[in-house]
Write a structure and sequence with these properties.
single chain, about 375 residues, alpha/beta, Aspartate Aminotransferase, domain 1, Aspartate Aminotransferase, domain 2, 7-stranded mixed beta sheet, 4-stranded mixed beta sheet, about 35% helix
Length: about 375
């Protein structure tokens, strides 16, 4: 049997990793500034993380959600405390796409409507409703296109107001920093106006924090930098530091009922241990603050590179926009300089998504290398 060939692969085979360093089968080390799409939040093989998982695996790794699992309650309490979102309830699943799928389902249950407002260049996952709300026709199959989704320009309030006033919308889904799209952001005025209009029209506002959450933006959630209060917050990627975990935070004004949502693997013992370990390291090592500080340092260093036309993002969810497509630059950084970086739908943007444990010396190395690669 062969693999279903859907991924264009770089010719690199990692076999071990520690911190921000990935090592391939030939012993070559790479500086990881991409973290597998922002998944590695506290560094590869963090000792507290690996110890937590080993200890849990030696006790019980999995049982279904038909029994008590106190780790889920511990996780909900810890997450509420560190994020400042105590007025929400937690539903655990396995991925960002599944998180957004459940968020849209809850919104439809609550409003008894089915239309979604999403935004151009947004990305919300590859499952049914999540991919329908993703602005990429190449990954939308005909079965997905049955969903009712209106794609609007980001920061165009007049277009948004016109659409929501039609009265048939169940949810608005919005990234505070667009990940795959290329690090574009809603303005604070726009995000706040969206929140006000959602409340007025009884529409559920979903903050997609799958990539920007868990401290990556320099605050626990990126929407917190705009002073708004979403109805549902979707999370995944960095919350498990590589273990598949996702979830949604559902504001307490939305009531649960038995059977409303469900999952086989979501919230299993190992997943909870992984996420608790991440939260503990974020707190103990002040990594949200580090993300804010190192993000500011990154911007300062990037301003010294004349080829950079625009610096995008916040915290350690960053992008450098050039006046050329970056595919060849990324290859050069990987094969000649041994640094992992990311691309975006905007092919002129180089994405930087390192572990939140990154230090100034590693950013200095990146910028010195980038200057060499751009010559």
């Amino acid at each position: 049997m062969k693999l279903f060939d859907v991924y264009p692969l770089y010719d690199v085979t990692p076999v071990s990793a520690n911190g921000l360093v990935v090592t391939d089968e030939k012993g070559q080390e790479y500086l990881d500034l991409y973290g597998g799409h922002a998944v590695i939040s506290i560094g590869h093989s963090h000792p507290h993380y690996t110890r937590r998982l080993k200890e849990q695996l030696n006790q019980i790794g999995f049982y279904s959600n038909a029994v008590q699992n106190p780790l889920q309650e511990q996780l909900a309490n810890k997450l509420g405390m560190l994020s400042g979102c105590e007025d929400y309830n937690l539903f655990l699943c396995n991925s960002g796409a599944e998180a957004n799928e459940n968020a849209l389902k809850v919104a439809s249950f609550k409003t008894q409507k089915s239309k979604v407002i999403a935004f151009k260049n947004g990305f919300h996952g590859r499952t049914s409703a999540a991919v329908a709300a993703t602005d990429n026709q190449k990954i939308n199959a005909p079965i997905n296109k049955q969903q009712k989704v209106s794609f609007l320009p980001l920061n165009n309030l007049a277009a948004f107001q016109k659409e929501i006033q039609k009265g048939d919308v169940c949810a608005v889904i919005l990234e505070a920093i667009q990940g795959v799209g290329g690090l574009d952001e809603p303005t604070t005025d726009f995000y706040r106006s969206v929140a006000v209009l959602c409340k007025a029209w009884k529409v559920i506002l979903i903050a997609d924090e799958v990539q920007s959450g868990f401290g990556r933006s320099g605050t626990f959630f990126a929407f917190q930098q705009h002073g708004i209060l979403p109805d549902i917050i979707s999370i995944a990627k960095g919350m498990g530091n590589g273990f598949p975990v996702g979830g949604i935070l559902i504001h307490k004004h939305i009531k649960a009922s038995h059977g409303m949502l469900g999952t086989t693997f979501g919230g299993n013992h190992l997943a909870c241990a992984a996420t608790l370990a991440v939260l503990e390291v974020l707190e103990q090592e002040n990594l949200v603050e580090n993300a804010a500080n190192l993000g500011a340092y990154f911007i300062e260093k990037a301003t010294d590179i004349p080829q950079v036309k625009k610096i995008k993002g916040r915290g350690l969810m960053l992008g450098l926009e050039f006046d050329f497509e970056v595919a060849e630059l990324r290859k050069k950084l990987i094969y000649e300089h041994h640094i992992f970086t990311g691309g975006a739908k905007n092919k002129k943007v180089l994405r930087i998504l390192p572990a939140l444990t990154i230090q100034k010396t590693q950013l200095d190395l990146f910028f010195n290398t980038l200057k060499t690669a751009l010559r």
